[in-house]
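Task: sequence design from structure.
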């Protein structure tokens, strides 16, 4: 994530801190009247985020148990985000991963309550500024983390728990739709409460939940569509190409004529590079229209086979940050695969196959080479 500082690596996962977190820490420190209160306030805030971090590791380590790795964890002022490499397909695994985070806070809260109980204190925070009041506040922090995270709304853990429970009896797309609907309803309730009581932080959360519900529903639908498909079913069969010695000017003409977002650069019938629209615009500004394509083209290509499974291919391209990839079938160039268009093409091809009442097949068209 942008504007994040790496603060460490635990259990093999990088932990990043968003800079806004430090700003908020400063604001908390400056709000207090005495230095002691400022230090105590900042320390509580740091401990709060240590609890959030342990919560995220609850998710991460449970996911690892099911063979899912995590790219990194980022701590934002609104909470932690663990970027899992993928979501589990098995609803039982999803349930376990979702519940593991809040369970960490249940354990921390339980330990703090036991400590206070042994010391003869109540877990309800007192006004006194001592070690006990600190433990009391941290107890309340952990209880709120459990309650807040178990609200049945995406992207909160409770939303995933609800979806996993529904997915045990319904198909995953319907389960996600219902869970997303509940999430949107919660968002509206949050927004109403926020406006009535003028709690603007809650309004911010309402927006976050509303967007999270929509994003989650879309992601699941895309996964349901692409599950079991191969690259050849989701590629563009129309390609446009040019030779590596061609100029940027002819590249522009070729792109305009073909209305394609990328050009394959050929050398002796082999694809040696690619030029996407944004690269071309940038190169025209910097180097001028007479520059040969070979000088500015991308050479970090990923070649795909039309018969390889779609989902891992999408992951490979997104991990490499590559916008498109040439597709081969039995040694011949048959198309271009573009991740952002894949789901739409696949849906069209499936609809067409359903209309013709035959199973979808890998199209074996000739590469057009030239755009018509
Ligand atoms: Zn969580």
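Answer:
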């Amino acid at each position: 994530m942008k504007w994040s500082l790496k603060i460490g690596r635990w259990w093999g996962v990088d932990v990043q801190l968003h800079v806004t977190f430090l700003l908020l820490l400063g604001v908390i420190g400056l709000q207090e009247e005495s230095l002691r209160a400022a230090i105590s306030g900042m320390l509580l805030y740091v401990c709060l985020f240590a609890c959030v971090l342990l919560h995220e590791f609850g998710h991460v380590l449970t996911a690892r148990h099911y063979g899912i790795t995590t790219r990194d964890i980022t701590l934002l002022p609104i909470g932690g985000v663990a970027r899992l490499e993928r979501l589990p397909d098995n609803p039982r695994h999803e349930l376990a991963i979702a519940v593991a985070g809040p369970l960490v806070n249940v354990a921390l809260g339980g330990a703090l309550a036991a400590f206070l109980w042994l010391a003869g204190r109540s877990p309800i925070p007192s006004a006194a500024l001592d070690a006990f009041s600190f433990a009391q506040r941290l107890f309340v922090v952990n209880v709120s983390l459990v309650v807040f995270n178990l609200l049945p709304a995406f992207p909160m853990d409770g939303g995933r728990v609800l979806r996993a429970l529904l997915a045990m009896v319904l198909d995953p797309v319907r389960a996600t739709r219902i869970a997303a609907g509940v999430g949107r309803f919660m968002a509206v309730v949050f927004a109403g409460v926020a406006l009535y009581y003028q709690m603007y932080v809650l309004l911010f959360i309402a927006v976050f939940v509303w967007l999270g519900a929509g994003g989650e529903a879309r992601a699941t639908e895309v996964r349901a569509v692409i599950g079991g498909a191969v690259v050849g079913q989701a590629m563009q069969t129309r390609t446009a190409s040019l030779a590596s010695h061609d100029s940027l000017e002819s590249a522009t003409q070729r792109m305009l004529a073909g209305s394609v977002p990328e050009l394959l650069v050929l050398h002796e019938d082999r694809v040696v590079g690619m030029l996407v629209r944004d690269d071309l615009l940038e190169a025209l500004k910097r180097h001028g229209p007479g520059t040969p394509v070979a000088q500015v083209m991308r050479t970090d290509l990923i070649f795909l086979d039309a018969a390889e499974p779609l989902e891992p291919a999408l992951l490979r391209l997104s991990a490499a940050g590559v916008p498109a990839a040439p597709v081969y079938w039995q040694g011949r160039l048959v198309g271009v695969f573009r991740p952002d268009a894949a789901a739409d093409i696949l849906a069209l091809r499936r609809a067409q196959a359903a209309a013709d009442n035959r199973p979808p097949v890998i199209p074996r068209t000739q590469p057009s080479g030239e755009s018509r």
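Residues 35-65 form the longest helix (31 residues).
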